[in-house]
Amino acid sequence: MKSVHFFISTVAALAFATFLVSAYDPSPLQDFCVAINNPQSVFVNGKFCKDPKLVTANDFFLPGLQIPKSTANPVGSTVTAVNMDNLAGLNTLGISLARINFAPNGLNPPHTHPRGSEILVVLEGTLYVGFVTSNADNNRLISKVLNKGDVFVFPIGLIHFQLNVAIAGLSGQNPGVITIANAVFGSKPPINPDVLAKAFQVDNKLVDYLQKQFWYDNN
Amino acid sequence: MKSVHFFISTVAALAFATFLVSAYDPSPLQDFCVAINNPQSVFVNGKFCKDPKLVTANDFFLPGLQIPKSTANPVGSTVTAVNMDNLAGLNTLGISLARINFAPNGLNPPHTHPRGSEILVVLEGTLYVGFVTSNADNNRLISKVLNKGDVFVFPIGLIHFQLNVAIAGLSGQNPGVITIANAVFGSKPPINPDVLAKAFQVDNKLVDYLQKQFWYDNN
Amino acid sequence: MKSVHFFISTVAALAFATFLVSAYDPSPLQDFCVAINNPQSVFVNGKFCKDPKLVTANDFFLPGLQIPKSTANPVGSTVTAVNMDNLAGLNTLGISLARINFAPNGLNPPHTHPRGSEILVVLEGTLYVGFVTSNADNNRLISKVLNKGDVFVFPIGLIHFQLNVAIAGLSGQNPGVITIANAVFGSKPPINPDVLAKAFQVDNKLVDYLQKQFWYDNN
Amino acid sequence: MKSVHFFISTVAALAFATFLVSAYDPSPLQDFCVAINNPQSVFVNGKFCKDPKLVTANDFFLPGLQIPKSTANPVGSTVTAVNMDNLAGLNTLGISLARINFAPNGLNPPHTHPRGSEILVVLEGTLYVGFVTSNADNNRLISKVLNKGDVFVFPIGLIHFQLNVAIAGLSGQNPGVITIANAVFGSKPPINPDVLAKAFQVDNKLVDYLQKQFWYDNN
Amino acid sequence: MKSVHFFISTVAALAFATFLVSAYDPSPLQDFCVAINNPQSVFVNGKFCKDPKLVTANDFFLPGLQIPKSTANPVGSTVTAVNMDNLAGLNTLGISLARINFAPNGLNPPHTHPRGSEILVVLEGTLYVGFVTSNADNNRLISKVLNKGDVFVFPIGLIHFQLNVAIAGLSGQNPGVITIANAVFGSKPPINPDVLAKAFQVDNKLVDYLQKQFWYDNN
Amino acid sequence: MKSVHFFISTVAALAFATFLVSAYDPSPLQDFCVAINNPQSVFVNGKFCKDPKLVTANDFFLPGLQIPKSTANPVGSTVTAVNMDNLAGLNTLGISLARINFAPNGLNPPHTHPRGSEILVVLEGTLYVGFVTSNADNNRLISKVLNKGDVFVFPIGLIHFQLNVAIAGLSGQNPGVITIANAVFGSKPPINPDVLAKAFQVDNKLVDYLQKQFWYDNN
């Protein structure tokens, strides 16, 4: 485990997180299956495909990932996801990408990807990252401080987090799919307070307080 | 969403949870691959196989699932897991089983299965169960009160929980793999308090308190 | 191989069989894909999905598995299957469940699951169960007598059977998909008698007799 | 369903059956994984791989498939299988092949492939082939008479058979893995006679007779 | 590597190539999914299925593979492919077949199968076959001369070729999906000449010449 | 198709290419399977795993991806691959990463990934990229000019290329696995010249010339 010394800082950070959505059906029966919106409100597992004859280069293209996005939000970070919803050619290929901007003192709260592993590369700044192993492995924390050019891997389904600790500034961002705090305390409708009071060993007042927080969803 | 009325109760509950460990390699190249301990501290993805010629019926057999286990523990419940570790024939078949005993007022805290979906059947008592959808679906709570003979499904990777609310007694049990509270507040070593304070919007004192709790791992 | 002593008995039995339908696409591209009936008589591999925005807890719920079903049928048993046809939320999750009621002296005739492994737990009574390995393993019989609380595994695709031999009462039930006797002698239209006469080394008269039997399909 | 007229004949037949062993791991992490015998009686799911640096063309090569084999056996046919056991390069590629020689009046008894679909092409003679759908589809017989150059498909796990009916000569061959009659009546040790008597609706005397037959395994 | 001596010859050749299209979804949720044309110009990954109730034996049947096809074309060969486009029952079964006729002096130019491994059996004549390993293995050529009855395997995705060298006659055929020369020099529109000049270390004149060739697509 | 105007330039480029190695076994049976060197020259499909108890954060970490590498080589580019060989934690997670440095006037020659799709993001400069569809789609060229921040997708198995055309400078790099020109003209031993002469419709002299070229492998 890394021991991390914290100093004041206003250094921002930037990272690319690529995560594999384990589609388990990478274009099995044709060259590609460019996603289209489900016609006539009929749905399939994944997406319907565009007529291959009408497919063009633009179906595999997405511009603008270099444009910085404001990180003026409660978590001080912004994720720009690239997936089949905005890059149709990714459908069935089982891979996606995200650009993450970190403001100083942000945080990527603990989260999981229910259907993907993640590989992260730091482009700017310093991140303190970690994941927690499952119960069978006694919930060990596997953590590391990453600097520019470092790469780190987060196995599928495990809870992990990322902070911008560049010279110990704290900032964070969630490229993930399930933000633990949001899911546990911010679900709609709320989870029965007795569940959470018992689960977190706190009284119902605190649960009530936590459930009343505004949870900013940065995805 | 279910609205649930709570009354005093001491009714226990019993459930079978079967969950699919998505092995994605169900005995592809032979009839079975009965697990053996990794020889010479060499490891593979999954387990090495027993010599097929030496395989007997006992390799596919596990007795004693009817024996009640004490639920005298902090969460008031006990899970009896049946997986490749105690039933070697399950190796590569991608399926496992668990018997769950619920004492009154127990709780199965929110958890996820990183590698499996779950189907639950209630044998005794009443359970209040639910899961929370991912961020893309706005973390909706999908919950239900289950009575004897009811079946419920928890999709792979989503955070879910189960309580014994038999006539509103609260008890719980975790057939799962990652207990959120344990993983977040009970990891070894602990997650940096600043991460958790920011993630849960509480001060470091509370995080410190939470991290000091004894977290009973009921798996 | 178990040597089994048979005595008269009228003890019934009850078992849960959970079998994994190896869907190989466990919710790869969204949280869930709740099955709906194929619209406009168009079909896909598996099922079309319900609009996720319209999904509720009831889509993951099935009541009534505790209700005993009459076993007054030729095989003296009844299976209550829980699959995507009656529990839509199971679609793409690759798992299903079955409750099996055994009357005395029933039988689960040899059968196979073309697309699933099975794990069985005995809730009441005693079952004599077994499976036969493939030709490469010389069709070995792997069998065992199971009592209350015992668990047994049947690998994908192998022919297996279950009898209620509680104190040697014979009863059976087929949670499976292909009943060998039905498929071989009860197909519609019938298989050419010369095939079966040669296959089973009996004369055409017996084949004719067997094909004339009423085959009760207990699935 | 085909109606087939039978006349005397001594015409032999020849077919190639290719069946896909659904390995579900087609060389995922390197170009190939040439099978070697399990070292030190340690086993894995599938086979260990030869050192890639030592791999040569001969590892992907098998000669002699044109050599006719004697069909002087009880089923009047011989199968020459090509799989990872005799063509090591096939390991992890999920495909295999078989040459089938049919003597007149042979039979390929009903059988299943627990882990593969099959595609058959007739090189000589005429075959009467069929498969039986699962219980959910009411065990329909899907059958056809095939002549030289015809191709037929047998879906994974379904019971099927093939006869040489070249001008109605009967001969057969089993490219499969589980021969139903062998597995049901010829298992070692035998299945409890009460099971089979009930399953096939015949008396124990006949079951005893059937179990006493010599079952030739032509694989 | 084989050293091959070449003599004049006019011997033709014939081969069956079976290749596995790694569909990774072999009929997971029903017995079969017989392909139908996409209705209303809607597309899915693979094909929509025919109503199972309307499926007949003809959906699994294709006649005429014995009929020789003219090899009077620039590559002196013809492939007769059997796949889900002309044999609907193959849909989702992950397997296909091809008959290959070789005229003297034809050639199967280097090609790859993006989604399948291949197993080849020589029915007539002699073929000189080979594949090239990937960069990580230093692009080794694995080649062999095959005679009647020989079998050879080509791992998924690797570039390979086949020639009829029966007593050194040259003939070829492409059972594959991507013909390298066609794809590189015959794409529509053409690849930028600077790319190819640099890639093949030749001047633009030659690239221009190559791009002007008529590329016969024998698939 | 893009029409591209070319001007002189010396602008370098930088890109990240992430490609999914379709491992089809993403950590199915434990949290992770950190790769170790094959012990005692025994090999498995993929890699053996490190003892989980000995796994640390460094097993998921690789530093130095920001360090520019010399592009002073024949193709004027360098790829820095991040895969299970240098980042052991990636084993079984089915994902990998590559940093690509482009010198002016380099080229990423046409290549394929036999086992992966690729997603590319441009960090600096401008790339002219494209892929060619398979024969069934008539080898269409799908190409595009990408600028800083643009993302492009290359489906699994299809031949593709990338050039640095920043203001039309040409440079390239191959993050791929099979470089077509290397594999076809630079294999060891060489492919029979008659094959290539016929395949590319050129005389043997040119083939001889091409085979004599030094092929720099930039992977």
Automatic annotation (TrEMBL), chains A, B, C, D, E, F:
Annotated family: Belongs to the germin family.
Family annotation (InterPro entries): Cupin_1, Germin, Germin_Mn-BS, RmlC-like_jellyroll, RmlC_Cupin_sf
Keyword Glycoprotein listed: yes
Protein name as it appears in the record: Germin-like protein
Lineage top rank: taxon: Eukaryota
GO MF annotation list: manganese ion binding
Signal peptide positions (record): 1-23
Function: May play a role in plant defense. Probably has no oxalate oxidase activity even if the active site is conserved.
Domain Cupin type-1: from-to ranges: 63-208
Origin species: Malus domestica
Binding residues annotated for oxalate, in chain numbering: 108, 113, 118
Keyword NAD applies: no
Pfam families registered for this protein in UniProt: Cupin_1
Binding site for Mn(2+): 111, 113, 118, 160
Disulfide partners: 33-49
Keywords for the protein's UniProt record, in alphabetical order: Apoplast, Disulfide bond, Glycoprotein, Manganese, Metal-binding, Secreted, Signal
Protein's cellular compartments: Secreted, Extracellular space, Apoplast
GO cellular component, one term: apoplast
